[in-house]
Amino acid sequence: MSPMVRDIALLVLAVSLVLLALTAFGERLRARRSQPDPAIEVFMTRVDSWWAMVVLFTLALVAGHWAVTLLFAVAAFAALREFYTYSARSKADHLSLAMAFYLILPAQFLLVAFDLQRLLGVFIPVYVFLLLPFVSVLRGSTDNFLARVSETQWGLMIAVYCLSHVPALMLLPLPGYAGRGMLLIAFLVMVVQTGDLVDFYMGRRTGRRRIVPGLSAKTWEGAGWGVLAAALLGMALWWITPFNPLESAAMAALASAAGQAGGLVLRAIKRDRGLRDWSHLIPGQGGFLDQLDSVIFAAPAFFHLTRLWWLAT
Amino acid sequence: MMPGMTAARPLRRLAARIAGQAIVLFARAITAVHADWRGVGPSPRQRVYFANHVSNADMPMIWSVLPHALRLQTRPVAAADYWLKTGLRAFAGAEVFRAVLIDRRPDARTEDPMMAINAALAAGDSLIIFPEGLRNQGPEPLQPFKAGLFNMAREFPEVELVPTWIANLNSVMPKGEVIPLPLMCSVIFGAPVALREGEERGAFLTRAAAALLALKPEERT
Fold first, then answer.
1. Interface predicted TM-score (ipTM) over 0.85
2. What is the pTM of this model?
3. Which residue in A64, A99, B17, B200 has the most C-beta neighbors within 10 A?
């Protein structure tokens, strides 16, 4: 067994044990009630969705680079669809939106698949940024123009550019870490998710000062606990990263902080659009954007800091 | 198409079933279409789903969100001049959707379109209809209803008339565009509208239209 397969197996085992504990916990609560409790049912649907995600993610990791890239490309498609369903657009944007879905999204993930790192970072923020407003203006409609082209670009940045940095983590040529890039993805997703969960749980119990009172119940205390928990988990998982234990904790804390910021930002957008969830596609969790909001913000920051610090390029 | 004729051609029926599943898959993959059973549940009662009409994809959309068992007993009412134009359309209309085809041209037609509709309802089928008649391409969210819905309510009082709003489909493929955009759509089923004792045609149609319009999601400004 290669060291990487062994490490993946260990991680999957650990995560499965946690999920098994959560499932058992939920089933016990369920068994105690005579009537079905909606809160427990929501919790159990969420646990089921986590199981599905862990299975899919593991299969992709085992299948190889292309499968991980494809998995995130599909997620990006679903996320972009959720974003554009509620974004400012008009009939005049039809072609630029079609290009976003059918050309730009696949192109960005092909850049990842073929390891074209120099283009990957600038394709959407530079070339697409300049091209798409031009495609939209050709139709001649100037109503609400700036809002339309801005939201089109924002959707691509969030759902495609940021998200593509998750599989792009496999591309970093870190010294002594060749071929183990997939573990860095597992690391990022695990510390960010843990930070979110601990923030949610501790925020409910110990939270006093809300970060944005009118928008969310998220508190500074909860966020602090979340970042701390992410850092501890990061330190515990240092052996799957290219970092030493302290660096690993610091990177995990940073990813969790970025992720929690992302949760708030996307929540503000949902509030503005009058939405509770982006969609209903993931049972118990809402949409892909609801599920991925933290990872979306954490991935590019994590990617670039890793490159700056450990590769200095 | 007589039932006996289709039964005699198992290959064609198999093709129709495969095509039907492909349409459902395609609708779900592109638009993630979602059924919101707001006023009624997906129960096997005999129903007429009456819906807003903005695009040719309206009918396949409703058809796709119905649970399989309901889909088997539900037939769309569609225009013969459109669905008989080419061989492919004739196959889709008659065998995939099992449409009740009616002639829209009052001057050229030989039989009353209500005859075919009444026959389908009498046979126990549920129907999908678009009471605005033609596709709505104006700025108003809903055009005035044609009288057919009133006739069905009067002739078949035991059939539930379910208002069915198709949301967002117009931005998937606005008129004149060829590439469909993958944006999320939903189909919202409201509470049934029944004819009241002694209610006039105009009053009933207005009330049914209002019930349908009430399902329309609020638009952002």
1. no
2. 0.88
3. A99
